[in-house]
Amino acid sequence: xxxxxxxxxxxxxxxxxxxxxxRVVSMPGCDIAVFRTADDxxxxxxxxxxxxxxxxxxxxxxxxxxxxxxxxxxxxxxDGQAQEPDEGCVHRVPVRVREGRILLGVGQPSGVAA
Amino acid sequence: xxMIAPKRSRLVLVGNGMAGVRAxxxxxxxxxxxxxxxxxxAEPHGNYNRIMLSPVLAGEKTFEAITTHPRSWYEENEIELxxxxxxxxxxxAAKTVTGALGTTRPYDVLILATGSxxxxxxxxxxxxxxxxxxxxxxxxxxxxxxxxxxxxxxxxGGGLLGLEAANGLLRNGMDVTVLHLMPTLxxxxxxxxxxxxxxxxxxxxxxxxxxxANTAAIHGADxxxxxxxxxxxxxxxxxxxxxxGIRPNIALAKDAGLACNRGIxxxxxxxxxxxxxFAVGECIExxxxxxxxxxxxxxxxxVLADRITGTAETDYVPAITGTRLKVTGVxxxxxxxxxxxxxxxxIVFRDARRGVHKKLVVRDDKLVGCVLYGAAADGSWYxxxxxxxxxxxxxxxxxxxxxxxxxxxxxxxETLPDTAEICGCNGVSKGTILAAIDKHxxxxxxxxxGRTKASSSCGSCTCQVExxxxxxxxxxxxxxxxxxxxxxCTGVGHGELRKAIVARQLxxxxxxxxxxxxxxxxxxASCRPALNYxxxxxxxxxxxxxxxxxxxxxxxxxxxxxxxxxxxxPRMWGGTTTAAELRAIADVVDKxxxxxxxxxxxxxxxxxxxxxxxxPAVWKDLxxxxxxxxxxxxxxxxxxxxxxxxxxxRFGTQDSTGMGVALEKMTWGSWxxxxxxxxxxxxxxxxxxxxxxxxxxxATEAGWDLHVGGNGGIKVRVTDLLAKxxxxxxxxxxxxxxxxxYREDAWYLERTAPxxxxxxxxxxxxxxxxPATRKALHERFLYSQRFSQDDxxxxxxxxxxxxxxxPLAEVS
Lengths: 114, 812
Ligand code: SRM
Ligand SMILES: Cc1cc2nc3c(=O)[nH]c(=O)nc-3n(C[C@H](O)[C@H](O)[C@H](O)COP(=O)(O)OP(=O)(O)OC[C@H]3O[C@@H](n4cnc5c(N)ncnc54)[C@H](O)[C@@H]3O)c2cc1C
Ligand code: SF4
Ligand code: FES
Description:
Chain A is an all-beta fold. Chain A has strands at residues 7-13, 21-26, 32-36, 42-46, 60-62, 65-67, 74-76, 95-98, 101-106. Chain A has no helices and nine strands. Chain B has 25 helices and 39 strands. The structure holds siroheme, flavin-adenine dinucleotide, iron/sulfur cluster and FE2/S2 (inorganic) cluster.
């Protein structure tokens, strides 16, 4: 632990995001794409493809991956990693779901590989 | 030198069907110039492949496609064909036959090949109009006609033929009930387990099946109205198809005093009780047995020809037969003794999830029978081992999984003699196939199918034909590359997928994935958009579009740009616009500070760099001026380009602009496998570049030339001429029919150009040349348009799908 606090911020209800879709939390600097899978898992990534900054929130969600709408890179939602043969990684944002509310952990960028 | 040709013997064939014509072919092959041949046929056309009547009824094949011997064949072989006149008497003393219209022909040798008749159960009412059998193309015609105007069909008999009839009627939109006397369907081909799976499958498609149903009477005043069962149940019916078995057609032979029992009795040389009269096919009885499948007929025809031409003293020896149900999407095969007895052992494999059931029956290390349901691709492999009496001791434990798991099993073709029959449906021997491979340098299965017809009907001999190719070509033959799967989530190809969606009535993406064994929980970005398209095309008005399965542009109804903004292209009908529209566009550009405005290559205007949040408001303003989405973002009808045409241009022959507008008004909003573009030019100078469009129209003095399959993109392809028509209505009908054929047949992301390269322009021309088919396609197109001509912008401007445009939350 580096001593910084994570602030859990309520950004909406899980049902505000349709299944297999994503919506954006707009932030200064970079938007965050929040994804909902078919089995109600929720993930959050910076809305910037590691390839050429395509908006991942506009991609097709399948399993626990999203396919970028610009050039079809496939990004893992859990780890932010681009699938082979492509290479790259998106910042992940910690997320929790409590009683249907989606909480984003802001203030501590995660996924920056240690 | 002047020679008088020796007088040829006169050969008369009664029955222009599968067995008789094959017998004539075999005779001609042995003794080309020996006989002067006359063929009498009760049906008014050349010979056709009767077993393919089921696909014709189901709408999968045309009558032309199943015709094996058109009239020209008879002419080329100097055969007199008297079609449409049944023979009514045989005078054996005078050696003549006479037809119903009085035509008389003398014979030296007579062949009877009158086939069989469907058994019409003599319940009260069985003679009412609307009660028919399923035997010839006329019956198919009757069924198709009734299906157009009536709803309820009852099929009596749940055997192979009955179920194929029922499936065909269902495919023609009828409510179908099958009445079957026995407790399980197709009890002569299926064990109870697979019969149960089949019943569930057919019921899933909407067929109603009553087993242990005993028909008591058929009611109706001037035509059939209802069927009553012994238990008192009464079922409404507009059509009753009797399919309760067949009976050899022996009336003529019996009248002539030939020995008959159930069939016309023949000896091992196919000769009847009169040495001048032979009989072949389903009309015969041989050593107490009667027949109902084609495979035995080919052997009979050979024996008969050997005997008649004096080539050899061969004898007919019955062989084991196999059957396949010709219902698209149902994969079954059965052969030999599949029920077994005290001396046999069963090996069973079941996969309930995939609906697979395989049962092999083994006696003394020999396979004696099999039933395969749900996975019958290996049918020919098993069938081969049954026929050859192969010793299966070594592969006994693994063979139920198929040849890929149980290798080392001898395929056996190399050991067969050249005369051995490989394709039962079309009667093609090993020698014929090898000769064709050699002579025409064939290298693929499809080529062999085209040349010899082997493996082109039911497909059960595919494995053997491939083995023969392997044998002939050695290392040069590679088995047909497995169909390219849609994506890595499945092994299924696009063609099979499209068929299954329709045949198995799959109506949602999860249903398809489950039925077709997808390996991923919810597919991927390749298969989901394809599935969404196939489903909306198959079930217009019923299928609910899955927006999560659409590529961003189609979901947003705008084109995403590299910076995440969008472009907006309103429709300009046929490339025409007005001052009011241009003014509204100018206002929108100012109001939303749209950075870029451009005239596109598709004769309309592109507004580039619109912010996502602004889209609904931009659309609202455009809508207010009467403009709708141009679908510049969709696998859909894009633009219809036109030239000024006869209204202004000094060369113009027709109103090309008006025609373009009419085409666009009819086709806008339709989703297609890939984007679809049209153009209309007013004369052959072709200023609208119609000959590189998916559907291009070029006006001439005489009317309109219709071109298809053009592409101006990555790989330029010039169109093929589809047809020349005279009226505007015809242009619209061809356009709608062509689009629908493309919509129903092509693979997702296949533009018309590669699609036509794949299926062949001939197929497209033939399909659309038939007025009935064309009309039906056009009607289906218009029907689906009823659900797709809502402007997607209007809904969204009014707040629909708001989540697409608004962030979930904003943090500052
Ligand atoms: C806007 C436009 C260029 C222009 O400024 O004129 C254009 C723009 C694009 N074209 Fe095009 N094409 C445009 C006319 C054409 C034409 C000319 C025509 O239609 O007469 C062609 C060649 C004709 C043809 O299609 O046969 C054309 C052949 C392509 C192709 C190659 C297609 C092919 O089959 O090879 C692509 C790539 C694709 O579709 O996969 C493409 C793809 C694209 C895309 C959609 C690329 C993309 O996926 O983002 C561009 C979208 C830009 C945007 O956001 O609006 N565009 N494109 C034209 C829009 C026409 C319209 O009013 O809707
Ligand atoms: C819908 C359907 C599907 C089938 N599916 C299969 C299958 O999948 N597999 C399989 O192995 N078999 C199948 N069969 C059976 C197969 O078609 C027959 O075994 C085969 O056609 C029999 O050939 P044939 O020449 O003996 O009789 P036919 O082909 O019936 O020919 C007899 C011809 O003789 C004519 N005729 C009769 N009397 C006279 C007369 N007095 N004068 C002149 N002409 C006369 C008839 O009109 C007919 O054209 C199917 C049959 C049908 C109807
Ligand atoms: S296509 Fe013919 S009629 Fe039309 S503008 Fe060109 S030259 Fe004129
Ligand atoms: S920007 Fe995402 S794949 Fe190119």
